[in-house]
């Protein structure tokens, strides 16, 4: 169920983030492989089934092409980036009442953690209203229902963002909301910090042209949405946040009706990482109005 919050003032003081001692956290720039869009061989409309596909259909009808890219570390450069321009923001010193047990129960996530995400977004974006519409927990373990996505993508496109507004709001309210600024922002955090295995790479929006975006039919059992796959183009600037900690959050903007910034992103294998505990993370998706 979607939840919504109107603008409020947050008065709690955050606790400073302390980096966890860990001898094997890779830091600094790294060259790694990212998987980019390769179109269907028959040039048909690309699609992906969210769940089990119908008999005789593939899970998706397009594939990937791998490129080696340099991924820079934003650690100690967090304040350099802002969501309106780069489509991502790195937030530190975030206080949370959510425990490990919170993330093992969907109702607890919605009751405890959603409230924190709403307040964070109100504080960081200056929005008038937040509506959280879903979340995903990803586990980098064999057999996980939702694993890290090792493919460059954006969760929403312009058509699917408008569709989301209409899906979650009554018709008259949706009509009014679509006249103003509306965004879709994911709030991403680690659940077993620090992040070492399968960190998240994200691209500076200004370095990825619109021509690199390809709409993908995202087929649910009851409806069809749209995500964006991303072609490799020269000049893309990629970043990651080394060793993400408990009190750190990434804001990943998938769509902005006013300023247009959107962030391609993907999990990746850091060749410097040692084998160990797989990454666990949660992303909460929000409609952000105003």
Keywords:
290 residues; alpha+beta; 6-stranded antiparallel β-sheet; 4 helices; 15 strands; 14% helix; 33% strand
Morphology call: globular
- Strand order of the biggest β-sheet: 1-6-15-8-13-5
- Indicate the structural class: alpha+beta
Strand content: 25-35%
Point out poorly predicted stretches. 5-15
Mean residue pLDDT: 92
Q: Any idea what the radius of gyration is?
A: 19 Å
Multimer state: single chain
Number of DSSP helical runs: 4
Give the helix level as a range of percent.
10-25%
Distance between the termini: 22 Å
Q: What's the count of strands?
A: 15
Largest sheet: 6 strands, antiparallel
In short:
By secondary structure, the chain is of the alpha+beta class. The protein has helices at 83-86, 106-125, 158-168, 171-177; strands at residues 3-6, 30-38, 47-49, 63-73, 88-91, 129-139, 153-154, 182-190, 200-203, 213-219, 224-230, 238-240, 249-256, 265-267, 280-289. A hairpin with a 4-residue loop joins β10 and β11 (224-230).
